[in-house]
Every structure is written in structure tokens, then in C-alpha cells.
Amino acid sequence: MPSRCKIRLAPFRFRQANLPRLGSLSDMRRPNFIAKHARNAQGLLGRVIAFIMAHETWSQNLRVMDALRIGRSDHIIDVGCGHGRSLSELATRASMGHVVGADPSDLMVEIASQRNRPLIDAARVKVVLATVESLPFADESFDKVLCVHVLYFWKDLDASLREVARVLKPGGRSGLLFRTKADPAAIASFPAEIYRFPELAEVTEALEQAGLDVHAASDRSNEPVLLIAEKRRAQTAEGPQSTDQAETIAVRRAIT
Ligand SMILES: C[S@@+](CC[C@H](N)C(=O)[O-])C[C@H]1O[C@@H](n2cnc3c(N)ncnc32)[C@H](O)[C@@H]1O
Fold first, then answer.
1. Which UniProt keyword terms apply here (predicted)?
2. Where are the domains of the chain?
3. Which of 56, 155, 230, 242 is the most buried (most CB within 10 A)?
4. What whole-number distance in Å separates Cα of residue 185 and Cα of residue 227?
């Protein structure tokens, strides 16, 4: 090969060797301009970030789906569905039910709609432009609410969880997955101007206030927290109605 060719290739090889691998992005501190796209993806960079996100968050989405114990006839909403990768998996698990993805980013709604086009055409999946603060659904519409790595961006945690509770049927379950203030890797990797990491107790208290009982909390170190909560049914004079409610009381004592 002529030497001129080697000289032209060298800078390319140098730059390639220094590019972050897709999988290694989670180990880096996100610059603000990238973190902003996680909150509100836009343009070409937003598309790239949506693509990376769909891979980075997948195992955690599956973790929430498993814990929610999706039923075949469930009506499910994924709040902050982003790229919409979860929606087809939810539709497979709820093969006789219905799945909605809600997200306030026009770009994410476009990507999620493209990704799920056949299921949307078959009326099994719907993607809507909406924030958690104002979900365009009637009270008690859903059996399950999924919400993965979204609550950092909520303006008002209490009002948002009240809205989640409103659209859940009594006995319906929410699965919230998020990193907390107690997670040093999260604090180090994401800019505080964009991500607000809550305390675990703050979220469990807000869930309780919204009318949901926390059934299960998984708080392993270096893992995001997973909270499964159930919308309260009317109480009877005899106290807790089910073994689930008895479990809830035990979980609440363990967390607080
Ligand atoms: C980090 S992404 C997570 C996406 C997806 N849940 C996942 O697991 O990959 C956060 C998503 O939350 C959405 N979002 C931001 N603010 C929101 C709000 N107030 N209500 C609902 N979704 C919101 C963003 O548009 C973005 O798609």
C-alpha cells in the first residue's frame, strides 16, 4: 500500500479507537446536552440516544414486567415509554389485553409508533403524546402501569403519582424503576440540573399518599430501585383484606 494512504487512515483509526462503545456510555458522565435528550429527545442526536437507550434499559424493563406479573387480559400503560421497545413485549404478555405508551416527546412518539406499527394497526397498541401529569384516560382504565427511568424529570412527584393512581383500577399495580439519591454511580454519571434523584422514602410516601400500597421494594446496591405498588381497594372493618395487604404492611415497615 502506498505510504500516502497510511497517513490518511491514521487519524481515522485514532479517532475510532477513542470513541466510546455504545455499552460503555453508561460508565461515562453524561454531558448536559446529552442528558437533555433523555428528558426530551429531539433531532438526529435524539434519535441516536433513543437507539442507545432502547438497549441500555432493556433488562430493567424486563425486570419490571416480570415483577408486575402481567396477565393475558391486562390493560397496561407505559408512562414515559420513550422509544417504545417495551410495548411489543407487553402486548405479547397481555395477548388478549391492550397496551398504551405515553410520552411527551414528539420524536419519541414518532419512534415508538414506527417501531410498533403492525400492533398499532391491529389496535393492540396505542402511542399517545402525554405527560404523566395529565394522562388522557378515564379513571380506572388500567390494570398495570409501568414506568422505567422517568420520574427524575417529573415536576411534581405527588401530583404525578396521584395521576398514576387515578388511571389504575382498584387492585391494579404500578411498577416504578428508578435510581435514588443513595446511588453514588447515578449521582456521578448524570447532571443534577436535569436529573433529580429522589429518596426511596420520598417515593414510597408519595405512593401511599396517592392511594397505593407498596408491595415489594427491591433496593440492591448498584441497581436501580424497583417499587411495586397496588391501588388500595375499599377497606373493610376487619382490616387488611388479603395476604397481599398483609405483605404490604410488612414491606412498609421494612422501608421506613
Ligand atoms: C430515560 S427515558 C426512559 C425511556 C423508557 N422508559 C426506557 O426505559 O428506556 C425517559 C423518558 O421519559 C419521558 N418523559 C420526560 N418527562 C416526562 C413526563 N413528565 N411524563 C412522562 N414522560 C416523561 C422522556 O420523553 C423519555 O422518553
1. Methyltransferase, Transferase
2. 26-232+239-255
3. 230
4. 20
Q: Which atom of ligand 1 is nearest to the CA of 56?
A: 9
Q: What b/e string do you get for 62-94 counting C-beta neighbours within 10 Å, with b at 16 or more?
A: ebbbebbebeeebbbbbbbbbbbbbbbbbbebb
The DSSP letter of residue 77 is E
* Residue 74 alpha carbon to ligand 1 centre in Å: 22
pLDDT: is 190 or 160 the higher one? 160
User: Which CATH number is 26-232+239-255 given?
Assistant: 3.40.50.150
- When computed from its CA atoms, the radius of gyration of the chain, rounded to whole angstroms, is 20
Closest ligand 1 atom, CA of 40?
25
Q: What is the distance in A from the centroid of ligand 1 to the CA of 27?
A: 20
Residues touching ligand 1 (Cβ under 6 Å) are: 38-40, 53, 57, 61, 79-82, 103-105, 108, 131-132, 148-150, 153-154
